[in-house]
Amino acid sequence: MRPIRTATLLTAGLVTLLGIPAAAAAEDPNILYVNNASSKCSDAGTGAPTAPYCTVSAAAKAVMPGQTVRIRPGKAYDEAVTIDRSGTPGKPITFASYGWPNGGTQAELPFGKGVTVRGASHVVIGGLRVGGGVLISGSTDVELDGIASSRGALDSLVVDGASKNVSIRRSELRGARIEGGSTGTVLGRNVVSGTHRSAVTVVDAPGTVVTNNTVYGSCAAALTVAGGSTDAGLFNNVLHTEARSDSCTSGDPRNGILVAQSAATGTASDHNLITGLPGARRRCRTAGPEPRTRTRRPSGPRRARAGTTS
């Protein structure tokens, strides 16, 4: 009798693994589904697999702490999404494409349609492609992972409104700006490309950490720290300073890293590689010397002096 029971359990496990309907795995109360390609979708529905929401916005109004909103990729979601509901410590609310965090196709919001997290806390967003940029404002403990964000000529990521403890990792960004009294922001393991100004700009945002990123500056400094952005940490980044933008009219020096006098207190920079792009053609007029390839020696962290440039 035992072999028969074992075979039955194995069959049940395969049914669940392969996604074939099974009574025990039909619905997970901690997952809300969004699928705008389903003929059964409804924003008045429950978010169950058999009755998914049509829009991300509808799910954003219903999600509760500890729940995950799973967004099916494929057909773009033609909507701007605002997230103003909060999770709790250990029970964040999560918005993610079906395959996240293990890869797969990103769910998409098209050009001009962005994501705003406003006045919320304990929020995780993963595996989305956003054509209208991401704004984190007045929010706490927000994580972005695996995001591809663009916003035309504007910064595709903005953290402001005194946000706290925002983390952005493994993402592709067209300009990132941390400002407005935000504290404890971490920008790590991203690829950031500049637009009409610095690729990464930190203004009046104390305690910001920029680490292990690849940054392509197309205008002005690749990474700028200014205003009251004291106690910043700038480590292990690769910064390409070769201009590549036809629209750049800035005469600012083409530094890899620029730290203003007002932001120098407590700011440390070390093990950054600053280089041009081999074979790239300079297409931006600049004032100041040509950028130089430069590496940090493996010593202790260097404190930025007033008016420091690299």
TrEMBL record:
<feature type="signal peptide">
    <location>
        <begin position="1"/>
        <end position="25"/>
    </location>
</feature>
<keyword id="KW-0732">Signal</keyword>
<protein>
    <submittedName>
        <fullName>Right-handed parallel beta-helix repeat-containing protein</fullName>
    </submittedName>
</protein>
<dbReference type="InterPro" id="IPR011050">
    <property type="entry name" value="Pectin_lyase_fold/virulence"/>
</dbReference>
<feature type="compositionally biased region" description="Basic residues">
    <location>
        <begin position="294"/>
        <end position="310"/>
    </location>
</feature>
<feature type="region of interest" description="Disordered">
    <location>
        <begin position="269"/>
        <end position="310"/>
    </location>
</feature>
<dbReference type="InterPro" id="IPR012334">
    <property type="entry name" value="Pectin_lyas_fold"/>
</dbReference>
